[in-house]
Amino acid sequence: MAGMTTNKTGVTMNKPGVNRSLFKRIGKLAVWPVCMVCVLSSFLAKEKGGETGHPPGLGGTTDDHALRPAGYDGYGAEASGALFPYKAAGLTERQAAAHLLDRFTFGATPGQVGEVVKEGLEKWFYQQLRADNPDDSLHQLLSGYDALSLSNEEIIKTFLKGGQVLRMAVRDGLIDKDSVDKGDKKQYRAQLEDYMRQKGIKPEKELFRQFVNQKILRAAYTQNQLQEVLTDFWFNHFNVSITKNDCSQFIPAYERDVIRPNALGRFEGLLLATAKSPAMLFYLDNFSSTGRNTNFAGKPFGNGGKQGQGLNENYAREVMELHTLGVDGGYSQTDVTQVARVLTGWTVYPMGEYGNGARKLVETMGEDRLKLGGFVHEGDFLFAPNRHDNGEKTIMGKTFSAGGGYEEGVDLLKMLAHHPSTAKFIARKIAVRFVGDDPPQSLVDKMAKTFMDKDGDIRQVLLTIVGSREFWSREALREKIKSPFELAISSVRGLGASITMPYPLYTWITKMGQKIYYYQAPTGFPDKGQYWINTGSLLSRMNFGLALASGRIPGIAFSLAALNNHHEPESTGAALVTYCRLLMPERDLTATIRRLTPLLNDPALEKKVGDASGKSGASGTGQDGLATQNIGADQNMEATKGMDASRNAGAALGMDGMQNRQTAQNRQRQDPQTRRSLQRNGPDQGPGSELGDGTMMEYEKEPLVQPATAVSNSPLLSQVVGIIIGSPEFQRR
Amino acid sequence: MATRRGFLKAGGLALFGISIGGVPGFVARAAGSVKSTGLYKKGKVLICIFQRGAMDGLMAVTPLTDPYLQAARPTLFMSAAKNSTNSPKGSPLIDLDGRFGLHPAMKSFEPLFRDKRLAIVHGIGSPNNTRSHFDAQDYMESGTPFSKGTPSGWLNRAIGLLGHDASPFRAVSLTPSMPRSFYGDNPTVAIGDLQDFAIQMKGNPLAANMAARSFEDLYDQASSDLLKDTGKESFDAVKMLQKMDTHNYRPENGAVYPFSPLGNALKQIAQLIKMDVGLEVAFAESTGWDTHFNQGTESGVFARSASDLSNSMAAFWADMEAFQDSVTVMTMTEFGRTVKQNGTGGTDHGRGSCNFILGNGVNGGIVHGELRELAVENLEDGRDLPVTTDFRSVFSEVADRHLQISDDTVLFPGWQGKKIGTMRS
Asked: Staple B269 to which of A325, A624, B51, B282, CB 3.0 to 4.6 Å?
């Protein structure tokens, strides 16, 4: 493993000049009792891993295959000019390009099918594998989010949970402990807000808001779509969850430094990086796992703590069952215990206010003495040999002899990363994501072989997919159901929309059944259509289409006329055909169009829709439970009510008369209100957080990147497009 | 997918207006009344309420005669005696049986307990001694206290064991996102508010009708079976719910639901039950139990949550008068809290807590379980009420007696414990 500054200094504790009692104290302090309120946070300084740079020190990110190779070499297929075998499957080049975009991006943007054809499908794909397209405009969009570039240590100093703030405020005497949850709530909140301002503290919620927003913006706008799709895939594979307070603050850096830079690398690098990340160490409790033969075994932690010290098998089990071998991968419960023993002492470097004591000790010793003592400190990761079970272990027939220290953990993870069961398990999972819920075994076998032959190189496995007949077969086309996130992002991309406020989209994605970053179980979201589609979520998808197309989701602007190059469709029927083709390029749309045409030719239609736009807010019938999301929509409707409802439907589609500056002004005016509604819809703090919603008013400011486009779309056209987005065909990719 | 067909077969739904352009569905709604759809026969319904944050079981149901509790909780202790030092106003605790006192904010539980409809299990909890909210909730909801990777929740597995045709409303969680208990392969619905179960166009029912008609047609023709079948179910469900008007709903029997998320959730569950839409398992959440700071006694943080929980459940029970034989309500919480109060007038994360089970089949009027004196040597790790009843013992008994689900190897794999008689045999 090049790039992992592994420590070869051995593990014995008997190095001269090393203060052993100091080690003991560090060992004790290196485990923080982590209860939601008494979050004794921990951990370590790490240099910022910027937007594109490789993070230092987290291991596995810069191995001998550079993440982004400079040339085309290394990909035999491209060098030899081999073409993807879609023609043999009977696809046209445009159909193939559309399929490629459906699977390896978050959806085609207007005209993108043509662009990919022009560039060449293969060339486009290799470029995506390199993931080095400039992303200046995305970075511009993200520049207003100050939390995104912070290190874990900076994050835990800045973004605190309610309970943490409360404890600090009580300790500093700013709030009397007897007044907590008593008396005048308003005054008490104001006091807390004041305190936070003084201290430069922001609520953790704000961190998650920025984090969620960046995910939406990246997915919608990065030019390196494949990297982002894979970031999503691997995050879900190595899932961690904001619902677990212990790890929540570390999740933004986890995605940024651990997942994204490794998403197109080698599997081994990904596995090692996740194993050593604070997010995973806390999420699956390995940070607290202690060897039986150490001083720390079996001792209950002090008052208020949660972890009795000792062996914790959670990570050991899941790293085999979920991350590598798969549940039938050939390991036993004994192996789980042995793996847990190997990984004892893998913990998090002390950081943050509550880690001060341990941090001071560590710093007093200095890195050299740490090394001498067998400690390994890389970034946020710490291997503490005094917590490690030093005995011999045997795992799946392989013996790890006594005294293996940190290195035996690395060896073990490498062994798991390259195991044939892992190759099969990962190959199938990737195939499920990119090919179909039940991918052909022949393809999975080929991918697994590539995985083994090419040292777990993820790019090579992807090349095996696009080089296969199975991927291009008719059975594979449109076979996947979009996740709610994919549905939302593909809609935005398909409409060429600009997002000035991403959070309302997140609210909708949650409503449709995918609360991203909050999936509780280490399995991650199930990747199958049946999971996403149920009666409730399907209705939400339809309502999402209608809300988005009619401009009722704040912070998203688009022009339907511009989408069609300002060509006015001649009739409702023509509009239907036009927008179906724009939003679902190269699909067979005859069924969709045939079913919708009679409805759109309903003579009463244009009156209904016209009435609709004129009657906003007139009937509070309980039909609409989305009031909080609809702020702004009323105004929007008002602005267009001058439309002459008696004109025929075709004429009503003309856009020119309807551009209306007042709409834009209304949108601007609505912003503060919208923001308050966003705040109400903000991410949960999880169970048990003590601070309510009232603590974050001033952090609500969205970086307003560009003013909302001053366009109001024709109500009838919006309705047509809303129905297309909610249609069964658009749910597929 | 086989379990979904029943609903489609049931079919036969009259057109409720939504598919007739121009006739708004809401016209069909009578003023606040709830009518059965007649589609499903009345079945049993299990309603689970998760008390997130870990309820202090010792404050909810206090061992009155314990000689150690008062010393451990100098400012939190209440007694059943009139005019005690801490409660000059009078007798806070409600003496249930000479041994246990119910928190005064839970007074609406008292008649249910006296009437033997309400059972309490004390010392209930998980065999896994984690004191992390996340882990403990995860283990309790997956039903596998030592395995994190269990992909499904115990209630989802319960649904799978019901073994008969299903309605789209068979399992409904009145929460904004899917609870861990519902994760799994059997179809479940999580919805914050049943009002969202409609095609929505702000203030514009005509356009909504038109869109609904279009969607209904499109999904009817979808080439993907999953989308086609679910689409049909969705629209049938919408039509069913059009009979329901949550704003004007009038609970029966003088029931008054608290104006709270839990009260609202139980109210909507009651409506679903009355409509016979095939509900069998429902889920709701109660919050505010993580009382590290100034927990209070008769009033305060704990009392607020306690009163919301008990008043919501009591209102539901009253509202359900005609259906009481069909419903059982069970609460659960991830763990209890420290026996000793902490330095900020609250309690920290502990082990055993108590739970409440309400229904006609419940072995009520009894505080079940085992609670030893709170001497330090009897406590887990010297600090916490020990877990004397495995939560799976109670959950599996309730599922067995109420829903006739007896396959514990599926419901709680790896568990082979005994049941303790919380339900009448």
From this structure: B282
